[in-house]
Structure formats: structure tokens, C-alpha cells
Amino acid sequence: MSKFGIIVGSIRKNSYSKGVADALVAGLPADAEVTYINIADLPLYNQDLDENSPESYVNFRAEVAAQDAFIFVTPEHNRSIPAALKNALDIASRPWGQSVWGGKPAMVASQSIGGTGASLANHALRQSLVILDMPTMQQPELYIGNTMALADEAGQITNEDTKKFLADSAKQFVAFAAKF
């Protein structure tokens, strides 16, 4: 398992979710092929476009299909995942019966500036991954709270204990993903 797709649910500049993703990537093997997959510019999914999908859909689906495993990092928006992340999940799972997510192992991490660590978004994302047929690592649970105190202005995690925890979690994910 050497191709890891990274999907960050926040499309904000200096995103804390991106900082968490970077800290997770630091725990992947040096020879891992890591691809941050951009979801910010995807047009809203529209089933009418299934027969003649826009180039952005086609390219995104191909990029997802090329990965062996995924690390998702998300903030919480209104007790769920951000619209951009849900849209990306939908685009790569369509047209019906042609999902490119199936069978790819996943890790879910969530973060928030509050103490809950976006736990509801974490579980909302996991719920979608079930129907997408993505085996998802259960432990450790990655709810990273109070990220403003753990990161710098650019969103990068600076707290050494948190960086170690995230890197160690990524190492566990490598072992989990290798089972598939």
C-alpha cells in the first residue's frame, strides 16, 4: 500500500484541517506516494451530468481511482461535514454503480477550535464511508480539539505531543491499510 490520497474537508486558506493532514502525512513511510486531492474547485454534483460529465468530474474520479488508501481530515460545519467534502464524495461515487471509492481503506480525523474535536462531523463522514464500501480504521479515534492552541497562524500543528500522536496514528493506519 503505497499511494495515499489526502482529502482535506476545509477549503479555507491556512486551514487547521490541512495542518492536521500534514502532521498525519509526517507519519507515513518515506517511500509513500502522497497526493493531496483538491476538492475546492469541483462544481456541485448534478446527476444530469452523469452521461456527459465535466472534465473536472472525470479528472477527480481518475485521481481518486489511482489511490490505494485515503486519509480524510475534516472540520465540523453545522454538526456535519463541509459541503465541499460531501460534494467530492458524491462525485466520485457516481454514476450509480461506478463508484471509485469502493474497497479503499480510510482513516478519518476531525478537528475543531472547540473542545469537541468535530466528533459529529467525524461520525457523519464515517457514515458516508460505509455506503461507499471503504473499510475505515476504528482506533485510534482522531478528534483533535482546541486546534487554535495547537497550531500556528498558518494552520500547521506546532504542539509536539499532538504531532507525535498524529504521526503515530498514521503509522497505525499504514498497518491497517496493508490488510486490504
From TrEMBL:
InterPro entries reported in the protein's UniProt record: Flavoprotein-like_sf, FMN_Rdtase-like_dom, NAD(P)H-dep_reductase
Signal peptide (UniProt feature, chain positions): none
Gene Ontology CC terms, in alphabetical order: cytosol
Superkingdom classification of source: Bacteria
A Pfam family per the record: FMN_red
Residue runs in coiled coils: none
Protein name: Chromate reductase
Provenance organism: Weissella soli
